[in-house]
User: What shape does this take?
Amino acid sequence: MTGTRRIRAATPADLPALRELFLSVRQHTFVWQPPDAFHLEDFDTQTEGERVFVAEAGDRIAGFISVWEPDDFIHHLFVDTGHTRQGVGRALLQALPEWSDRQYRLKCLSRNQPALAFYHAQGFVETAQGVSDDGEYIVLSLDGHDRAENTADERK
Assistant: This one.
């Protein structure tokens, strides 16, 4: 990733930037949804009670991850479109508490092929499928064997 990167817990001061990032990335990514399907306040309601971490690049928030900790469920992972393919998503995942020991899982819309490819590259495997109001989705869980290999490769 270019620029300085720092992963930290989100603070209330981050809310305006997080709301904007969440809105703009969803509008850019989920083009099959109607434009009025997304709202600025969605971030607040969809991350309520979750632990949120942000990735900073310089003085900007480049991405965030939110986790519902009681279930080790990654609810959201969004990277600003200007910072994709620069290691932000991987850094956010690896910053999760006990990344190497917990069996984190998530849901990803089937139509979001770039995200599915990313998660597979990070060691997630498909464990279930379903349908929601947003469309068909795939449940992914971490495969500890693949994750250990990916982490070892990154240390070289």
Observations:
- The beta strands are 5-9, 51-57, 60-68, 73-79, 105-109, 124-132, 135-142.
- The longest strand covers residues 60-68.
- Confidence is low (pLDDT under 50) at residues 145-156.
- The domain at 5-155 is CATH 3.40.630.30 (Aminopeptidase).
